[in-house]
Amino acid sequence: MPQHFVAPPQWEWYIVWYFFLGGIAGGAYALGAILRLMGDQRDAPVSRLAFLLTLPVLAICPILLTLDLGRPLRFWHMLIDSRTFGLNFKYWSPMSVGAWVLIIFSLFAFVSFLEALGSLRGSRAPFLSGGLGRVFMIIGAFFGLFLAGYTGVLLSVSNQPVWSDTWALGGLFLASGLSVAAAALTLMTRLGRHDASAEAKLSRADRYFTILELVLLVVFFLSLGAVGSQFLQPRWMALWVVVLVGTLVPLALHLSTERRMPAMLAAVLTLVGGLALRIVVVFGAQM
Fold first, then answer.
1. Number of C-alpha atoms within 13 angstroms, CB side, residue 213?
2. Do 285 and 159 touch, CB atoms closer than 8 A?
3. What are the C-alpha distances in Å from 268 to residues 5, 68, 244?
4. Distance in angstroms (rounded) separating the CA atoms of residues 272 and 128
């Protein structure tokens, strides 16, 4: 096992939930943008639903981050230099980059949320129509995808045992973030009785996200080598079973000819499996 010369991290449940909700928020915005830009009129309600989901979920993330700091009132130091009161952006610091991406993405999520609310009343903000609106959503989707995958990259560059021994966490968390976002939207679509066309697209997309997640999970363990045995201790096996059930079973259900209940069951299992993945990755390296 490689030698590391830093104190063990002390990340707790706040970070686990931040990783999970950040993946849902970033993935949901990206999926909403794709449905808006590449879908047809039947996809508009689900695209709107994605934008309505993104902001409330995203709003919880900075709260979790500030609570994890232990001194929440100093969170602004990550954004503002306390000596000069200028912007405090450190491009070499993943934590600083992540904080700024969270702030910038929040602006895109807020505007899209307002536009989605307006469209419910039959109006659409001129800013988000036409070419300018397309550019806006493409940039917003980029920041959303960045947020979903950044959480895994943050672990990989932390110079902490196990996390820094693999390069696959960024891709794994991105694939998982897209999968749990698609699952959340599928569940809300089912409950809201939206058009089946958009739901079918979400199901098909989630199928590919799940396959990619499984591939990257294998790559994750292969890249860790012998170090990966730390994640396979008996205390973590139950969580790994949940992760596998939350990926393999939904994948099988996506191929089912039955429509309603399997889709809802697949969505719930995917969400539970996505949370379990983050729990075992975060805590498994610290114990």
1. 29
2. no
3. 40, 27, 13
4. 34
- pTM score, two decimals? 0.88
Task: Note the pLDDT tens digit of each residue in 143-170.
Answer: 999 999 988 888 887 767 777 777 888 9
**What does the DSSP assignment read for 216-238?**
HHHHHHHHHGGGGGGGGSHHHHH
Q: Which two tokens stand for residue 35?
A: 């449905």
pLDDT in tens, 192-239: 766 677 778 888 899 999 999 999 999 988 888 877 777 778 888 999
Q: Contact, 263 vs 199, CB < 8 A? A: yes
Which residues lie closer than 8 Å to 241 by C-beta, 6 or more apart? none
Instruction: Write 131-136 long-range contacts (CB < 8 A, 24+).
Output: 134/37, 136/108, 136/111
Domains along the sequence of the chain with CATH: 13-284 (1.20.1630.10)
In this predicted model, what pLDDT tens digit does every residue of 81-138 receive, in sequence order?
667 666 666 766 677 777 888 999 999 999 999 998 888 776 655 567 778 889 999 9
Q: Residue ranges of the alpha helices (H) in the chain?
A: 13-38, 44-69, 94-120, 130-156, 169-192, 196-224, 234-254, 260-284
